[in-house]
Write a structure and sequence with these properties.
This protein has helices at about 1-25, 25-45, 50-85, 90-95, 100-135, 135-165, 170-185, 200-205, 220-245. Helices cover about 75% and strands about 0% of the residues. The chain is globular and about 60 Å long. Helix 2 (about 25-45) packs antiparallel against helix 3 (about 50-85), helix 2 runs parallel beside helix 5 (about 100-135) and helix 3 runs antiparallel to helix 5 (about 100-135). The protein has one domain. The longest helix has about 35 residues, at about 100-135. It is an all-alpha fold. The protein is built from 9 helices and no strands.
């Protein structure tokens, strides 16, 4: 009976939180990003001679390098923090469901919505580029490769920024530091530093199914990167659920 209660509560919280994220006014930001990515890729498709290699590099820069962590930060860092600040989270904290399961419900909702948004942005950018260059089997293969990559990225980045929203009063500042200083600057320095970024391991993993552009030239062991990303996600979920379980909301 108790297991059924937890299962029902987890499913209800997940879908409620997902719908809340979708209808929030932040969807306008995702829409603007999708339009921007589509416009940039459509423009470059008319200006350059390269085909699928250029498309892969553009998707790498626009989606994986920039907009994926930005969207994850915007949605993830504020998801639980906003409910703590406006006290609406009290209903969740006082419910009979274990807080750690409630935290997983937030994570599942965030991962689902973020993956859908990133897939939409990626598909729009891809379609605008190949509407000019022409669609073929290779372009579809490229699309599926990037869609898989952004889904995995959504799982890892959601776990990271959701923790920020639980343990930090103002998570956006550390989130911006991580995105722009750690991943963009430190992660671009040649050497061992890049091994300590999510993006590096995500690109190494993606190199096993994307055969075009700079992603395909990434060096490293995809299986090791997969283990790193999986282990990091589990560790972040454990930290976040523990912090949420012990969270005191005035």
């Amino acid at each position: 009976m108790r297991t059924q209660l937890h299962t029902t509560g987890l499913r209800t919280l997940t879908w409620f939180s997902a719908k809340k994220l979708i209808v929030h006014r932040r969807w306008a930001i995702a829409l603007l990003i999708a339009i921007l990515v589509g416009a940039v890729m459509g423009y470059f498709a008319t200006e350059i001679e390269e085909g699928i290699t250029a498309a892969s590099d553009l998707l790498n820069i626009l989606v994986l390098f920039f907009f994926m962590p930005i969207l994850a930060l915007i949605y993830g860092a504020s998801m639980i923090r906003n409910e703590i600040d406006d006290r609406s989270i009290t209903q969740v904290l006082t419910s009979p469901m274990d807080r750690r399961l409630s935290y997983l419900g937030y994570y599942f909702a965030l991962s689902l919505v973020l993956a859908l948004l990133l897939m939409l942005v990626t598909t729009i950018g891809w379609a605008c580029f190949f509407a000019v260059k022409g669609f073929d089997a290779s372009s579809l293969e490229l699309l599926f490769g990037y869609l898989l990559t952004v889904c995995i990225g959504a799982l890892v980045y959601s776990a990271l920024f959701l923790v920020f929203g639980v343990v930090l009063r103002h998570p956006i500042y550390l989130g911006l530091f991580y995105v722009f200083i750690w991943e963009d600057f430190v992660g671009s320095i040649p050497g061992a530093a890049e091994n300590y970024t999510i993006r590096h391991h995500l690109l190494v993993l993606a190199s096993s199914w994307i055969d075009y552009g700079e992603v395909a030239t990434m060096t490293g062991d995809p299986w090791m990167s997969a283990m790193v990303l999986f282990g990091l996600t589990i560790a972040l979920l454990a930290i976040g659920s523990w912090a949420f379980w012990n969270k005191e909301v005035p």
